[in-house]
Design a protein that fits this description.
The protein is α/β, with parallel strands linked by helices. It contains ten helices and eleven strands. 37% of the residues lie in helices and 24% in strands.
Length: 251
C-alpha cells in the first residue's frame, strides 16, 4: 500500500443470495484528496460505502485504512481509527439545539458520550470549540435552534459540523447534496471543500456538477464493478461511462 494511499480495497465483493452487488472492486484513495464514487442507479455505490464502514460485511476481499487491514472491524472501531461516515454522528437529538448537538459530538471525541448530567461548567467548557465549528459551517445564527426546526440544507451543515467535531482523518459523505435547492448545494459544496483542506473525503454524489467542481479523482461504478477511474475530464469523455449513464436514463 503506497504511502500516499489512505484507503484501499482489494477484490471487494458483496453477494446477496446469488446477486452480486459489488464485484472485485479495487479502490485506492489518495491522502488529502476529494475522491468521488459515482455511477447510475443500482451501480453499487451505497453498498460499497456500507462495506467500507462495515455496516455490511464483504463476501470476499480486503479493506485497508492507513495500511491496516480493517476487514471485519466493528463500525464504531473504524470510526475511532479516524474513518467516519457522516450519518454515524449526525444530529441524532432533534430536540436539542445546534450548539448542544455539536457539543455532544465534541464530548464523544473526548470519550464521554453522555455528559448531559454533569455540572454545567463541564458542559460549557466545550462551548468555544463548538461555536467555532458552528461558525465554520455557517450556522451561528442557528446556534440556539432545535435541530428539528432547521431547514434541510442547514441540517446537512449541522451533520458536517458534528462530523468535524470528531476530527476524522477521513470523511465518507453519502450524497451530501441530495434533495437540496441550488443555494444549499453551493453552501454544502463550499463546506466540503473547506473540510477537505486537512483531511481526505470520499463521497457518493449524484450531482455531476458538484463532482466536477470538487473532485480530484473519480471512480465510476456500473453493475457493481469499476468502469472507469481518473479526473472528471477523463471519465466524462469515456464512451463506456457515457453509455452507462444514458443506458440508465441519465443525462
Amino acid at each position: 500500500m503506497a504511502d500516499d494511499t489512505i484507503l484501499e480495497t482489494r477484490g471487494l465483493t458483496k453477494e446477496f443470495k446469488g446477486f452480486v452487488a459489488v464485484r472485485n472492486v479495487n479502490l485506492a484513495v489518495r491522502r488529502g484528496t476529494i475522491h468521488a464514487l459515482i455511477g447510475p442507479n443500482g451501480a453499487g455505490k451505497t453498498t460499497c460505502f456500507n462495506l467500507l464502514t462495515h455496516f455490511l460485511s464483504p463476501t470476499a476481499g480486503q479493506i485497508l485504512f492507513n495500511g491496516r487491514d480493517i476487514t471485519g472491524s466493528r463500525p464504531a472501531s473504524i470510526a475511532r481509527m479516524g474513518l467516519v461516515r457522516s450519518f454515524q454522528i449526525s444530529a441524532v437529538f432533534p430536540h436539542l439545539t445546534v450548539l448542544e448537538n455539536v457539543r455532544i459530538a465534541l464530548q464523544r471525541k473526548r470519550g464521554h458520550s453522555f455528559d448531559f448530567w454533569r455540572a454545567q461548567d463541564v458542559l460549557t467548557a466545550l462551548d468555544p470549540q463548538a461555536r467555532a465549528l458552528i461558525e465554520a459551517v455557517g450556522l451561528t445564527e442557528f446556534a440556539g435552534t432545535p435541530a428539528i426546526e432547521l431547514p434541510y440544507g442547514r441540517k446537512r451543515a449541522l451533520e458536517i459540523a458534528t462530523t468535524l467535531a470528531l476530527d476524522p482523518e477521513m470523511m465518507l459523505l453519502d450524497e451530501p447534496t441530495a434533495g437540496m435547492a441550488h443555494e444549499d448545494v453551493e453552501r454544502i459544496s463550499a463546506l466540503i471543500k473547506h473540510a477537505a483542506q486537512n483531511r481526505t473525503v470520499l463521497m457518493v454524489e449524484h450531482n455531476l456538477s458538484v463532482v466536477s467542481k470538487l473532485s480530484d479523482h473519480i471512480t465510476v461504478l456500473a453493475r457493481g464493478e469499476i468502469l472507469a477511474q481518473g479526473d472528471y475530464a477523463t471519465v466524462s469523455k469515456n464512451p463506456d461511462v457515457v453509455q452507462a449513464y444514458l443506458g440508465a436514463g441519465h443525462a
